[in-house]
Amino acid sequence: MFSGGAGDGHAKDTRRGGRMPSGQGYERDYAREYAGQKARGESGTGSESGNAKRKRLRRAVLKRRNIPKGKEVDHVRPLAHGGSNTVENARVVDAGKNRSFPRTKSAGMRKT
User: Fold this and answer.
1) Among the listed ranges 16-25, 31-40, 52-61, 82-91, which one has the minimum average pLDDT value?
2) What does the pLDDT look like over 95-105, one tens digit per residue?
3) Which terminal residue of the chain has fewer beta carbons within 10 Å of its beta carbon, N or C?
């Protein structure tokens, strides 16, 4: 799979015929990377991006109730588990609770 370069001291990735991403002279093909992200549904643009959808949800929750400082809008059912960006699936929680993973008593990550 990987072989040495032509005596230049840099490894070549023979699977793709080019230099490895960590090698000197490697140039990223941003257009190809972005096309792959779009094809996999990982990247939206403009109003269809995940970030724009979360911001719309926050504004919708703000219209219904006040969000105190240090609080954030959280999804009751996570988006990764099939939840939606609707007000019915939103709640206001402490920022620390929203940004951390469930922990065990010994501070390890709890398996969900």
Assistant:
1) 16-25
2) 888 887 777 88
3) N
Place of tokens 């093909």: 29
Residues 6+ apart with CB under 8 A from 8: none
Q: Which helix (H) or strand (E) holds 96?
A: helix 95-99
**How far apart, in Å, are the Cα atoms of 7 and each of 2, 12, 13, 16?**
14, 11, 15, 19
DSSP designation for 59: H
∠49-51-55 over CA atoms, to 5°? 120
> Would you state the structure tokens that stand for residue 31, as one six-digit string?
């257009």
Position 49: which residue type? S
Phi first, then psi: what are they for 99, rounded to 5°?
-100, 0
**Token output for 34:** 């972005």
